[in-house]
Protein backbone atom coordinates (compact mmCIF):
# COMPACT_ATOMS: atom_id res chain seq x y z
CA UNK A 1 0.00 0.00 0.00
CA UNK A 2 1.06 3.61 -0.53
CA UNK A 3 2.41 5.76 2.28
CA UNK A 4 -0.31 7.54 4.26
CA UNK A 5 -1.26 10.99 3.05
CA UNK A 6 -1.61 14.11 5.19
CA UNK A 7 -5.09 15.58 5.05
CA UNK A 8 -5.81 19.11 6.28
CA UNK A 9 -9.28 19.39 7.82
CA UNK A 10 -10.73 22.84 7.11
CA UNK A 11 -13.20 24.17 9.66
CA UNK A 12 -13.46 27.83 8.70
CA UNK A 13 -16.82 29.60 8.65
CA UNK A 14 -16.31 30.90 5.10
CA UNK A 15 -14.84 29.62 1.85
CA UNK A 16 -12.38 32.52 1.86
CA UNK A 17 -11.17 31.66 5.35
CA UNK A 18 -10.57 28.07 4.28
CA UNK A 19 -8.77 29.10 1.09
CA UNK A 20 -6.48 31.35 3.13
CA UNK A 21 -5.55 28.29 5.20
CA UNK A 22 -4.95 26.26 2.05
CA UNK A 23 -2.48 28.87 0.78
CA UNK A 24 -0.64 28.80 4.10
CA UNK A 25 -0.47 25.04 4.55
CA UNK A 26 -0.33 23.79 0.93
CA UNK A 27 3.36 22.71 1.13
CA UNK A 28 2.65 20.46 4.12
CA UNK A 29 -0.42 18.47 3.01
CA UNK A 30 -1.54 16.09 0.26
CA UNK A 31 -5.27 16.67 0.29
CA UNK A 32 -7.99 18.75 1.95
CA UNK A 33 -11.18 17.93 3.83
CA UNK A 34 -13.79 20.66 3.56
CA UNK A 35 -15.97 20.43 6.64
CA UNK A 36 -19.07 22.06 5.18
CA UNK A 37 -20.88 21.56 8.49
CA UNK A 38 -18.70 24.38 9.89
CA UNK A 39 -19.62 26.87 7.17
CA UNK A 40 -22.01 29.76 7.69
CA UNK A 41 -25.38 28.96 6.15
CA UNK A 42 -25.07 31.27 3.15
CA UNK A 43 -21.58 29.94 2.40
CA UNK A 44 -22.97 26.50 1.53
CA UNK A 45 -24.06 27.92 -1.84
CA UNK A 46 -20.40 28.12 -2.86
CA UNK A 47 -19.25 24.65 -1.79
CA UNK A 48 -19.38 23.30 -5.37
CA UNK A 49 -16.59 25.65 -6.48
CA UNK A 50 -14.21 24.80 -3.67
CA UNK A 51 -12.09 22.07 -5.38
CA UNK A 52 -11.46 24.31 -8.39
CA UNK A 53 -10.48 27.22 -6.15
CA UNK A 54 -8.30 25.11 -3.83
CA UNK A 55 -6.47 23.31 -6.66
CA UNK A 56 -5.86 20.24 -4.52
CA UNK A 57 -7.63 16.90 -4.09
CA UNK A 58 -10.62 17.50 -1.78
CA UNK A 59 -12.88 15.49 0.51
CA UNK A 60 -16.40 16.79 1.08
CA UNK A 61 -17.67 16.15 4.61
CA UNK A 62 -20.90 17.36 6.20
CA UNK A 63 -20.68 15.83 9.65
CA UNK A 64 -23.75 15.39 11.87
CA UNK A 65 -23.72 16.43 15.50
CA UNK A 66 -24.10 12.82 16.65
CA UNK A 67 -20.86 11.98 14.82
CA UNK A 68 -18.92 14.88 16.32
CA UNK A 69 -19.85 17.48 13.69
CA UNK A 70 -21.81 20.73 13.59
CA UNK A 71 -24.65 19.95 11.18
CA UNK A 72 -28.08 20.04 12.85
CA UNK A 73 -30.54 20.95 10.04
CA UNK A 74 -31.74 17.39 9.37
CA UNK A 75 -31.02 14.59 6.88
CA UNK A 76 -33.12 15.90 4.00
CA UNK A 77 -31.32 19.26 4.08
CA UNK A 78 -27.96 17.52 4.37
CA UNK A 79 -28.79 15.32 1.38
CA UNK A 80 -29.63 18.41 -0.67
CA UNK A 81 -26.36 20.05 0.33
CA UNK A 82 -24.42 16.97 -0.76
CA UNK A 83 -26.33 16.91 -4.05
CA UNK A 84 -25.68 20.60 -4.72
CA UNK A 85 -21.97 20.19 -4.00
CA UNK A 86 -21.67 17.16 -6.31
CA UNK A 87 -23.93 18.50 -9.10
CA UNK A 88 -22.66 19.40 -12.58
CA UNK A 89 -19.49 17.41 -12.07
CA UNK A 90 -16.83 18.04 -14.69
CA UNK A 91 -15.98 14.73 -16.35
CA UNK A 92 -13.40 16.42 -18.58
CA UNK A 93 -11.43 17.87 -15.68
CA UNK A 94 -11.88 15.75 -12.53
CA UNK A 95 -9.70 18.15 -10.54
CA UNK A 96 -12.67 20.51 -10.44
CA UNK A 97 -14.70 17.89 -8.59
CA UNK A 98 -14.54 16.58 -5.06
CA UNK A 99 -12.36 13.49 -5.39
CA UNK A 100 -13.77 12.02 -2.19
CA UNK A 101 -17.03 12.35 -0.29
CA UNK A 102 -17.56 11.20 3.30
CA UNK A 103 -20.84 9.33 3.90
CA UNK A 104 -21.53 7.72 7.29
CA UNK A 105 -22.15 3.97 7.34
CA UNK A 106 -25.90 4.50 7.84
CA UNK A 107 -26.22 7.20 5.15
CA UNK A 108 -27.26 5.45 1.94
CA UNK A 109 -28.77 7.62 -0.80
CA UNK A 110 -28.68 5.76 -4.13
CA UNK A 111 -28.73 8.90 -6.26
CA UNK A 112 -25.70 10.35 -4.45
CA UNK A 113 -23.84 7.05 -4.63
CA UNK A 114 -24.60 6.76 -8.36
CA UNK A 115 -23.36 10.32 -8.94
CA UNK A 116 -20.14 9.56 -7.08
CA UNK A 117 -19.60 6.40 -9.14
CA UNK A 118 -20.34 8.17 -12.42
CA UNK A 119 -17.78 10.90 -11.92
CA UNK A 120 -15.05 8.92 -10.17
CA UNK A 121 -15.65 10.35 -6.69
CA UNK A 122 -14.59 7.80 -4.10
CA UNK A 123 -16.85 7.31 -1.09
CA UNK A 124 -15.30 7.31 2.37
CA UNK A 125 -17.75 5.20 4.36
CA UNK A 126 -17.25 6.38 7.94
CA UNK A 127 -18.14 5.37 11.46
CA UNK A 128 -17.42 7.61 14.46
CA UNK A 129 -17.65 6.37 18.02
CA UNK A 130 -17.34 9.47 20.18
CA UNK A 131 -17.58 7.69 23.55
CA UNK A 132 -16.49 4.08 23.11
CA UNK A 133 -13.58 2.17 21.57
CA UNK A 134 -14.13 -0.07 18.55
CA UNK A 135 -12.97 -3.69 18.39
CA UNK A 136 -13.02 -6.27 15.57
CA UNK A 137 -11.86 -3.42 13.35
CA UNK A 138 -11.15 -5.42 10.18
CA UNK A 139 -14.50 -7.20 10.37
CA UNK A 140 -16.22 -3.86 10.85
CA UNK A 141 -14.41 -2.39 7.84
CA UNK A 142 -15.39 -5.41 5.72
CA UNK A 143 -19.05 -4.89 6.66
CA UNK A 144 -18.94 -1.15 5.93
CA UNK A 145 -17.28 -1.51 2.53
CA UNK A 146 -20.17 -2.33 0.19
CA UNK A 147 -18.34 -1.70 -3.08
CA UNK A 148 -14.77 -1.71 -4.33
CA UNK A 149 -14.62 2.07 -4.63
CA UNK A 150 -15.53 2.74 -1.00
CA UNK A 151 -12.90 3.45 1.66
CA UNK A 152 -14.02 2.45 5.17
CA UNK A 153 -13.11 4.84 7.94
CA UNK A 154 -13.28 4.15 11.67
CA UNK A 155 -12.52 6.82 14.27
CA UNK A 156 -13.12 6.17 17.95
CA UNK A 157 -12.49 7.75 21.33
CA UNK A 158 -10.39 5.40 23.48
CA UNK A 159 -11.07 5.00 27.17
CA UNK A 160 -7.54 3.86 27.90
CA UNK A 161 -4.25 3.37 26.09
CA UNK A 162 -5.08 -0.34 25.85
CA UNK A 163 -7.80 0.58 23.34
CA UNK A 164 -5.21 2.29 21.14
CA UNK A 165 -2.86 -0.66 21.53
CA UNK A 166 -5.65 -2.90 20.27
CA UNK A 167 -5.98 -0.76 17.13
CA UNK A 168 -2.32 -1.35 16.29
CA UNK A 169 -2.54 -5.04 17.21
CA UNK A 170 -5.59 -5.78 15.05
CA UNK A 171 -4.29 -3.96 11.98
CA UNK A 172 -0.66 -5.15 11.83
CA UNK A 173 -1.24 -6.88 8.48
CA UNK A 174 -4.34 -5.05 7.27
CA UNK A 175 -3.40 -4.24 3.67
CA UNK A 176 -6.10 -5.79 1.48
CA UNK A 177 -7.75 -2.45 0.62
CA UNK A 178 -7.57 1.26 1.42
CA UNK A 179 -8.93 2.26 4.81
CA UNK A 180 -8.74 5.11 7.30
CA UNK A 181 -8.25 4.39 10.99
CA UNK A 182 -7.54 6.59 13.99
CA UNK A 183 -8.03 6.81 17.72
CA UNK A 184 -9.16 10.27 18.78
CA UNK A 185 -8.22 12.39 21.78
CA UNK A 186 -4.82 12.79 23.46
CA UNK A 187 -4.30 9.05 23.89
CA UNK A 188 -4.81 8.53 20.16
CA UNK A 189 -1.98 10.78 18.98
CA UNK A 190 0.25 7.80 18.17
CA UNK A 191 -2.35 6.48 15.72
CA UNK A 192 -2.06 9.74 13.76
CA UNK A 193 1.74 9.98 13.71
CA UNK A 194 2.26 6.24 13.14
CA UNK A 195 -0.53 5.86 10.57
CA UNK A 196 1.84 3.78 8.45
CA UNK A 197 1.70 1.02 11.07
CA UNK A 198 -2.09 0.67 10.72
CA UNK A 199 -1.70 1.07 6.92
CA UNK A 200 -4.17 3.96 7.02
CA UNK A 201 -4.83 5.76 3.72
CA UNK A 202 -4.43 9.14 5.41
CA UNK A 203 -4.00 10.95 8.68
CA UNK A 204 -6.07 14.02 9.55
CA UNK A 205 -4.49 17.28 10.69
CA UNK A 206 -5.92 20.72 11.44
CA UNK A 207 -4.70 24.18 12.37
CA UNK A 208 -4.62 25.21 16.05
CA UNK A 209 -8.11 26.17 17.24
CA UNK A 210 -9.83 27.58 20.30
CA UNK A 211 -12.81 25.30 19.61
CA UNK A 212 -12.90 22.81 22.53
CA UNK A 213 -14.54 20.07 20.46
CA UNK A 214 -11.83 20.31 17.80
CA UNK A 215 -9.03 20.26 20.36
CA UNK A 216 -10.54 17.22 22.06
CA UNK A 217 -10.37 15.22 18.81
CA UNK A 218 -6.57 15.36 18.98
CA UNK A 219 -5.56 16.64 15.55
CA UNK A 220 -1.94 17.72 15.06
CA UNK A 221 -0.89 20.87 13.24
CA UNK A 222 0.30 19.90 9.72
CA UNK A 223 3.50 21.90 10.11
CA UNK A 224 4.31 20.01 13.31
CA UNK A 225 3.46 16.73 11.61
CA UNK A 226 6.06 17.51 8.95
CA UNK A 227 8.75 19.49 10.73
CA UNK A 228 8.70 17.81 14.16
CA UNK A 229 7.54 14.25 13.45
CA UNK A 230 8.76 14.06 9.81
CA UNK A 231 5.67 12.05 8.98
CA UNK A 232 6.48 11.44 5.32
CA UNK A 233 9.85 9.89 6.18
CA UNK A 234 8.46 7.30 8.59
CA UNK A 235 8.46 3.66 7.52
CA UNK A 236 8.67 0.11 8.81
CA UNK A 237 12.39 0.56 9.55
CA UNK A 238 11.86 3.68 11.71
CA UNK A 239 13.03 3.31 15.33
CA UNK A 240 10.35 4.56 17.72
CA UNK A 241 10.94 6.38 21.01
CA UNK A 242 8.57 8.43 23.10
CA UNK A 243 7.53 10.09 26.31
CA UNK A 244 4.83 8.85 28.65
CA UNK A 245 3.08 10.57 31.52
CA UNK A 246 -0.33 11.94 32.46
CA UNK A 247 -1.97 14.16 31.45
CA UNK A 248 1.04 15.15 29.30
CA UNK A 249 -0.80 18.19 27.98
CA UNK A 250 2.36 19.80 26.66
CA UNK A 251 5.92 18.59 26.30
CA UNK A 252 8.89 20.01 24.42
CA UNK A 253 10.78 16.72 24.43
CA UNK A 254 9.65 15.70 20.88
CA UNK A 255 11.22 18.89 19.51
CA UNK A 256 14.56 18.11 21.14
CA UNK A 257 14.78 14.41 20.32
CA UNK A 258 13.39 14.55 16.77
CA UNK A 259 15.76 17.37 15.88
CA UNK A 260 18.59 15.22 17.19
CA UNK A 261 17.58 12.38 14.87
CA UNK A 262 17.60 14.79 11.92
CA UNK A 263 20.99 16.19 12.91
CA UNK A 264 22.46 12.69 12.98
CA UNK A 265 20.62 11.35 9.90
CA UNK A 266 18.75 8.73 11.93
CA UNK A 267 15.54 7.05 10.79
CA UNK A 268 13.87 7.53 14.18
CA UNK A 269 10.86 9.30 15.67
CA UNK A 270 9.94 10.36 19.23
CA UNK A 271 6.24 10.68 20.05
CA UNK A 272 3.97 11.50 23.02
CA UNK A 273 2.28 8.49 24.64
CA UNK A 274 -0.14 9.84 27.28
CA UNK A 275 -1.32 7.19 29.75
CA UNK A 276 -2.79 7.18 33.23
CA UNK A 277 -1.36 3.69 33.77
CA UNK A 278 2.38 3.05 33.38
CA UNK A 279 1.83 -0.66 32.77
CA UNK A 280 -0.42 0.16 29.81
CA UNK A 281 2.24 2.55 28.51
CA UNK A 282 4.83 -0.25 28.65
CA UNK A 283 2.50 -2.70 26.92
CA UNK A 284 1.72 -0.12 24.24
CA UNK A 285 5.44 0.51 23.70
CA UNK A 286 5.92 -3.24 23.27
CA UNK A 287 3.14 -3.38 20.67
CA UNK A 288 4.49 -0.55 18.51
CA UNK A 289 8.07 -1.72 18.90
CA UNK A 290 9.33 1.31 20.83
CA UNK A 291 12.97 1.08 21.88
CA UNK A 292 12.97 3.67 24.65
CA UNK A 293 10.74 6.01 26.65
CA UNK A 294 11.15 9.16 28.66
CA UNK A 295 9.03 8.87 31.80
CA UNK A 296 7.49 11.90 33.44
CA UNK A 297 4.93 12.66 36.17
CA UNK A 298 3.30 10.74 37.72
CA UNK A 299 5.12 7.57 36.65
CA UNK A 300 8.76 8.09 37.66
CA UNK A 301 8.36 5.95 40.77
CA UNK A 302 5.66 3.48 39.68
CA UNK A 303 7.66 2.56 36.56
CA UNK A 304 10.22 0.79 38.77
CA UNK A 305 8.02 -2.30 39.13
CA UNK A 306 8.04 -2.68 35.33
CA UNK A 307 11.84 -2.76 35.03
CA UNK A 308 14.15 -5.75 34.79
CA UNK A 309 17.22 -3.83 35.93
CA UNK A 310 18.23 -0.26 36.82
CA UNK A 311 21.41 1.76 37.06
CA UNK A 312 22.96 2.85 40.35
CA UNK A 313 21.34 6.30 40.24
CA UNK A 314 17.88 4.79 40.01
CA UNK A 315 18.68 2.47 42.89
CA UNK A 316 19.68 5.44 45.08
CA UNK A 317 16.92 7.79 43.94
CA UNK A 318 14.10 5.21 43.65
CA UNK A 319 12.82 6.98 40.53
CA UNK A 320 13.48 6.57 36.82
CA UNK A 321 12.81 9.04 34.01
CA UNK A 322 14.41 7.02 31.20
CA UNK A 323 13.76 3.41 30.19
CA UNK A 324 15.28 1.42 27.35
CA UNK A 325 14.46 -2.01 25.98
CA UNK A 326 17.42 -4.39 25.95
CA UNK A 327 17.05 -8.04 25.00
CA UNK A 328 13.25 -7.71 25.29
CA UNK A 329 13.53 -6.39 28.86
CA UNK A 330 13.07 -2.82 30.08
CA UNK A 331 15.96 -1.18 31.94
CA UNK A 332 15.78 2.07 33.90
CA UNK A 333 18.03 5.12 34.18
CA UNK A 334 17.79 8.58 35.69
CA UNK A 335 18.97 11.62 33.76
CA UNK A 336 17.06 14.21 35.82
CA UNK A 337 19.86 14.44 38.37
CA UNK A 338 22.57 15.09 35.78
CA UNK A 339 20.40 17.52 33.83
CA UNK A 340 19.56 19.45 36.99
CA UNK A 341 23.15 19.59 38.22
CA UNK A 342 24.46 20.99 34.94
CA UNK A 343 21.62 23.49 34.63
CA UNK A 344 21.86 24.74 38.23
CA UNK A 345 25.63 25.20 38.20
CA UNK A 346 25.46 26.96 34.85
CA UNK A 347 22.69 29.24 36.12
CA UNK A 348 24.35 30.12 39.43
CA UNK A 349 27.96 30.14 38.27
CA UNK A 350 28.83 27.89 41.21
CA UNK A 351 31.17 24.90 41.08
CA UNK A 352 29.34 23.05 43.84
CA UNK A 353 26.77 23.62 46.60
CA UNK A 354 29.06 23.51 49.63
CA UNK A 355 27.95 25.85 52.41
CA UNK A 356 24.59 26.35 50.65
CA UNK A 357 21.26 25.72 52.35
CA UNK A 358 18.55 24.66 49.96
CA UNK A 359 14.77 24.32 50.12
CA UNK A 360 13.40 21.50 47.95
CA UNK A 361 9.67 21.93 47.30
CA UNK A 362 7.91 18.66 46.55
CA UNK A 363 8.55 14.98 47.22
CA UNK A 364 7.88 13.19 43.92
CA UNK A 365 10.19 11.44 41.48
CA UNK A 366 11.79 14.69 40.31
CA UNK A 367 12.34 15.76 43.92
CA UNK A 368 14.24 12.54 44.62
CA UNK A 369 16.55 13.10 41.65
CA UNK A 370 17.18 16.70 42.65
CA UNK A 371 17.80 15.80 46.28
CA UNK A 372 20.34 13.24 45.07
CA UNK A 373 22.04 15.91 42.95
CA UNK A 374 22.10 18.40 45.85
CA UNK A 375 23.69 15.75 48.03
CA UNK A 376 26.32 14.94 45.39
CA UNK A 377 27.11 18.64 45.02
CA UNK A 378 27.69 19.00 48.77
CA UNK A 379 24.60 21.04 49.69
CA UNK A 380 22.40 20.82 52.79
CA UNK A 381 18.66 20.78 52.24
CA UNK A 382 15.21 20.61 53.72
CA UNK A 383 12.41 18.88 51.81
CA UNK A 384 8.95 20.46 52.02
CA UNK A 385 5.74 18.75 50.99
CA UNK A 386 2.05 19.05 51.81
CA UNK A 387 2.18 15.44 52.97
CA UNK A 388 4.92 15.36 55.64
CA UNK A 389 5.53 11.63 55.41
CA UNK A 390 6.35 11.92 51.71
CA UNK A 391 8.79 14.73 52.53
CA UNK A 392 10.33 12.51 55.20
CA UNK A 393 10.74 9.58 52.80
CA UNK A 394 12.82 11.75 50.45
CA UNK A 395 14.75 13.56 53.19
CA UNK A 396 15.71 10.36 54.98
CA UNK A 397 17.27 8.96 51.82
CA UNK A 398 19.88 11.72 51.78
CA UNK A 399 20.18 12.80 55.42
CA UNK A 400 18.19 16.05 54.92
CA UNK A 401 15.59 17.77 57.10
CA UNK A 402 11.92 17.77 56.18
CA UNK A 403 8.74 19.67 57.00
CA UNK A 404 5.14 20.07 56.01
CA UNK A 405 4.70 22.71 53.31
CA UNK A 406 2.56 25.32 55.05
CA UNK A 407 2.68 28.77 56.59
CA UNK A 408 4.18 27.21 59.71
CA UNK A 409 7.25 26.21 57.67
CA UNK A 410 8.24 29.81 56.85
CA UNK A 411 11.04 29.98 59.49
CA UNK A 412 12.54 26.76 58.13
CA UNK A 413 12.25 27.95 54.52
CA UNK A 414 14.05 31.14 55.56
CA UNK A 415 16.79 29.01 57.12
CA UNK A 416 17.19 27.09 53.84
CA UNK A 417 16.73 30.02 51.50
CA UNK A 418 20.06 30.30 49.67
CA UNK A 419 18.47 28.36 46.80
CA UNK A 420 14.80 27.34 46.49
CA UNK A 421 14.12 24.49 44.08
CA UNK A 422 10.51 23.97 42.98
CA UNK A 423 10.08 20.35 41.80
CA UNK A 424 6.30 19.90 41.62
CA UNK A 425 3.96 20.29 38.63
CA UNK A 426 2.08 23.10 40.42
CA UNK A 427 2.01 26.10 38.10
CA UNK A 428 2.47 24.10 34.90
CA UNK A 429 0.51 25.63 32.00
CA UNK A 430 -0.89 28.27 34.35
CA UNK A 431 -1.82 31.67 32.88
CA UNK A 432 -3.36 33.16 36.02
CA UNK A 433 -1.71 35.42 38.62
CA UNK A 434 -0.14 33.74 41.62
CA UNK A 435 -2.61 32.03 43.95
CA UNK A 436 -2.79 29.08 46.32
CA UNK A 437 -3.55 26.69 43.44
CA UNK A 438 -0.71 27.56 41.06
CA UNK A 439 2.06 28.63 43.46
CA UNK A 440 3.29 26.17 46.11
CA UNK A 441 4.96 29.07 47.99
CA UNK A 442 2.11 31.59 47.65
CA UNK A 443 2.42 32.36 51.38
CA UNK A 444 6.17 33.04 51.40
CA UNK A 445 7.51 36.60 51.36
CA UNK A 446 10.58 36.70 49.15
CA UNK A 447 13.43 38.93 50.33
CA UNK A 448 15.21 39.25 46.99
CA UNK A 449 18.26 37.36 48.23
CA UNK A 450 17.00 33.90 47.32
CA UNK A 451 17.83 32.07 44.10
CA UNK A 452 14.80 30.26 42.65
CA UNK A 453 15.04 27.30 40.26
CA UNK A 454 11.66 26.04 39.00
CA UNK A 455 11.88 22.81 37.00
CA UNK A 456 8.70 23.75 35.05
CA UNK A 457 9.33 25.24 31.61
CA UNK A 458 5.73 25.92 30.50
CA UNK A 459 4.99 28.75 30.95
CA UNK A 460 8.47 30.25 30.77
CA UNK A 461 7.64 32.40 33.81
CA UNK A 462 5.54 30.50 36.34
CA UNK A 463 3.51 32.19 39.10
CA UNK A 464 6.14 31.36 41.73
CA UNK A 465 8.86 32.79 39.47
CA UNK A 466 6.85 35.95 38.84
CA UNK A 467 6.52 36.65 42.58
CA UNK A 468 10.19 35.94 43.25
CA UNK A 469 11.27 38.16 40.35
CA UNK A 470 9.10 41.01 41.63
CA UNK A 471 11.06 40.83 44.91
CA UNK A 472 14.40 41.00 43.06
CA UNK A 473 15.32 37.32 43.17
CA UNK A 474 17.39 35.63 40.49
CA UNK A 475 15.16 32.97 38.87
CA UNK A 476 15.46 30.16 36.33
CA UNK A 477 12.93 27.83 34.73
CA UNK A 478 13.44 24.19 33.70
CA UNK A 479 14.32 24.67 30.03
CA UNK A 480 18.05 24.15 30.51
CA UNK A 481 17.45 21.16 32.77
CA UNK A 482 15.16 19.67 30.09
CA UNK A 483 17.88 20.18 27.49
CA UNK A 484 20.69 18.58 29.48
CA UNK A 485 18.69 15.63 30.73
CA UNK A 486 17.37 15.16 27.18
CA UNK A 487 20.90 15.09 25.80
CA UNK A 488 21.76 12.30 28.20
CA UNK A 489 18.57 10.43 27.31
CA UNK A 490 19.45 10.75 23.64
CA UNK A 491 22.83 9.16 24.31
CA UNK A 492 21.19 6.31 26.25
CA UNK A 493 18.62 5.78 23.46
CA UNK A 494 20.98 5.96 20.50
CA UNK A 495 24.55 5.63 21.74
CA UNK A 496 25.39 8.97 20.11
CA UNK A 497 26.27 12.29 21.75
CA UNK A 498 23.52 14.79 20.93
CA UNK A 499 25.89 17.69 20.32
CA UNK A 500 28.42 15.67 18.35
CA UNK A 501 28.89 17.09 14.85
CA UNK A 502 28.20 14.51 12.17
CA UNK A 503 29.35 15.03 8.61
CA UNK A 504 27.49 13.59 5.65
Topology summary:
Blueprint: E1 5-10, H1 15-25, E2 31-35, H2 50-54, E3 58-61, H3 75-86, E4 100-104, H4 110-118, E5 122-129, H5 137-144, E6 150-156, H6 161-170, E7 180-183, H7 189-193, E8 202-205, H8 212-217, H9 222-227, E9 239-245, H10 253-263, E10 268-274, H11 278-288, E11 290-295, E12 309-310, H12 312-317, E13 322-326, E14 329-333, H13 336-348, E15 357-361, H14 365-376, E16 380-385, H15 388-398, E17 401-404, H16 410-415, E18 419-422, E19 451-454, H17 463-470, E20 474-476, H18 479-494
Parallel strand pairs: 1-2, 1-8, 2-3, 3-4, 4-5, 5-6, 6-7, 9-10, 9-11, 12-14, 15-16, 15-18, 16-17, 18-19, 19-20
Antiparallel strand pairs: 11-13, 13-14
Helix pairs in contact: 6-11, 10-18, 13-14, 13-18
Structural key phrases:
alpha/beta; 6-stranded mixed β-sheet; 18 helices; 20 strands; 20% strand; elongated
